[in-house]
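Last lecture ended with a question: if I hand you only a sequence, what can you say about the shape of the protein? Today we answer it with a concrete record. The protein is Peptidase M3. Below, first the input exactly as provided, then the predicted structure, then a couple of comments.
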Amino acid sequence: MARARATVATLTDGTDRTADEVIALWNQCDVAVANASTHAELFAAVHPEERVRERAEVATQEVAAFLTERGQDRALYEVVAAVDTTGLDAQATRLVEKVLRDFQRSGVDRDDATRARLTEIAERMVVVGQEFSRTIREDVRSIRVTAEQLAGLPQDWIEAHPADEDGLVTVTTDYPDLIPYLSFAEDRGCRIALATANGQRGWPANDAVLAELLQLRHEQAVLLGHDGWPDFDAEVKMIGTGAAIGEFIDRVADLASASAERDLATLLARAQADDPAITAITSGDTAHYTELIRREQFDVDAQQVRTYFDFTRVRDGLLTVTGRLFDVSYEQVDAPAWHPDVTSYDVVRDGVRLGRIHLDLHPRDGKYKHAAQFDLVTGV
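The predicted structure:
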């Protein structure tokens, strides 16, 4: 962040600069901010030590505060607004236009009191958003089942889940438990209980957090001249307006509803073959009966298919396929990382290292639970 602040100071030092020089300095600032942000966001999501995750969240807040400050810096705005785009290529011209637009969206043209409130809102939204995500990430729920209620699950999964002293087995909402149990367990009541527990992660703690976040978003949008958050947020996206979001969802729903109803009817019919008393498909049924229909109607058995896709083969296969696709090779290296589970690879083409990737593929306490990709260093 020191480099980013130094670049802003250079841009506003009163020196006459060409359009290309201003754009180059702006890009340097963006790269510095991006690299600070990506490190902080990654460590907040995956680092095994809680104190590091907490410090990374603070660093993310500091980055956001700088971006708000930069977006309201009138001297910096005047430097960019003074750029003569005559002679610039289309890409450079577009950059200048988007930067000026973002200054307006930060409130650079508002009075002091409004800009101060916008700063408070922006900083608070980061904190509230982090709290919302953290609450879900750290909320691992579970059910406890008998040995009989493991019927249908693969034997290796059962062996990996020994019973506790009371004879019950703990099944958590982490994916390696959740997905197999919802897919294969025969006990419908336990499947529904686990799916419900998963759907309630973060609740009720996040109710008040979400309400505050929505209120802050609305206030920010109104202060910047919009009717509400949907219009403000959509302004810089392909959808364009808040109204268009609802219209698009309605169109998709209209197009998809017939297929969805047909699929639900198929699932319900298969469920009723097990239990005629079932009247509706729940989140605890979908994966299970989808798997049964694949097996019975299409002769595709996931438990048989999985024998061809052990972890090492899948990982190596993905590296092989993407290597062919992008004309690169991956060379495993012994590199510093944040956890022993991480494996690191140099990305090489024609003997030249283009970059490095790190694979962190297993769940653990405090780690972001979904499939994801995080940048570590950006250079563009």
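Comments.
1. The chain has three domains: 2-137+215-238, 140-201+249-307, 311-380.
2. The first helix runs from residue 2 to 11.
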